[in-house]
Amino acid sequence: MPNPWDVGSARLLESAGFEALATTSAGFAWSLGRLDQNVSRDELVAHVAMVAAATELPLNVDSERCFPDDPGGVTRTVELLAEAGAAGFSIEDYNPDSGTMDDIAAAAERVAEAAEAARRQDEPLVLTGRAENHIRGVDDLDDTIARLIAYRDAGADVVYAPGLIELEQIARVEEAVRIPVNVLALPSVPSLGELASAGVRRISTGSLLAGVAYGALLEGARELREEGTSHYAEGGTWRDALKAAFDS
Length: 248
Hints:
Elements: H1 7-15, E1 21-22, H2 25-31, H3 41-54, E2 59-62, H4 73-84, E3 88-91, E4 94-95, E5 100-101, H5 104-120, E6 126-130, H6 141-153, E7 158-160, H7 167-177, E8 181-184, H8 192-197, E9 202-204, H9 208-227, H10 237-246
């Protein structure tokens, strides 16, 4: 389940044969010239509506903490995402304002609220409960597993601990939670086949595809500015891919 950051990248990934997509909070923020965690709920909902309308694939939404402090809180966020065309969404337990992980009980309460709201929709949304420990400097697998179990028990359909890279750790999570697990496809993560053998049901790319795309842009710009050449554009196979994806 790769993560596009705008309509064009969503349609390209659809044309590449994937069966589902997910937004990326960081990739979308970068497309607005901002860092992650600096997008409003209204901006996210508008983004989801545009991407969902541009592709026929199910769209999962990286909705951060589901904006608990906005009017209507988590419940209203879920309603807005459903209205925008989302098929699923995630809720995480890292507070960017304090720079700390949320208390497990408080985070599980938000998951429960999100689960109730998701199931009230005409087409219930798939809810992913996220434990952010391993991308926020907390290398504590036992705490991560405790969080994921709490989110499962609160109603999450899928659980996700981005940053886990060792197959043994991922297998421990699988064994403990007994519901579908999402894994972030970092460069050091085992192959998709190995992850599947450990029971992993869903794999996403987070902000990685967006980061690589922006990196290629910077490298091309560097070559043009410093060397005065445009070898970065040689080949041009991307032109045919763009035409195939967008000519409809």
